[in-house]
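Dissemination and training. As part of the outreach component of the grant, students in the summer workshop were shown how a complex can be specified as a set of sequence lines and then modelled as a single object. The example used during the hands-on session is reproduced here so that future cohorts can follow it. Participants entered these lines:
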Amino acid sequence: MALQDSLEILGGKWKLLIVHYLAQRTAEENTFKNMQRGIPGISAKMLSKELKDLELNLMVSKEQPGLKTSTASYSITTYGKKVMPVTDVLINWGLQHRLMIKENG
Amino acid sequence: MALQDSLEILGGKWKLLIVHYLAQRTAEENTFKNMQRGIPGISAKMLSKELKDLELNLMVSKEQPGLKTSTASYSITTYGKKVMPVTDVLINWGLQHRLMIKENG
DNA sequence: GGCACTGGTAACCTTGAGGTTACCACTAAG
DNA sequence: CTTAGTGGTAACCTCAAGGTTACCAGTGCC
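and obtained this result:
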């Protein structure tokens, strides 16, 4: 079932958050430390691991223009942009749900 | 952030699968054992637990017409139907991703 | 009575996602 | 030289999600 596939690939605490973060900024902004600061709560280990997973799945690409490691940056690929409907719909749902809790609360 | 909220509430291995399952059938079909058989891999424990979570979040309702426990069944609520866009978009993405993997081989 | 089904629950165990700490190499600024 | 920043990695630990097994009560059939 396709739903199960998607949940396996995009599941977990961080992947969608990372993709969404990258989708909103330019490559130059997306340095490792910037991302770490911009995604509250994520550890270097998880960020590193998830970025590798996302690279493997062709959703994120890493650029390192020179030899300096300190110039590395990340950006979302064209293919990666295809998960944006997923994050969008989840964000909408989250907002709706918050409202509903308030009204009902 | 709304995205994090959504991931917390809908996250995990089973919730979206259950909601999607329920959304496709009538209440009468949705007995506990039927669901267990229809959602491959789920255990009674998880099904029971997740159904309770979903009831708490007002997405699923349990009906038990008589006193007999054996007549219990589950159905998705109007509110629960609002997560259908999420499952739909994930299913589409999953199908696309499968295609892309094949092409890219 | 005995067997099979239903709707579950309680107790226990395993596994891996995720967190924490420490560490490395390189660059730039003071 | 020292301090602070960058981009990470390795090793270890924890905890909860999820799985497994056993069990219970009720209904129906033969």
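Residues 31-33, 44-45, 47-48, 68-72 of chain B lie near DNA strand C (CB under 10 Å from a C1'). Students were then asked to discuss how this feature might be tested experimentally.
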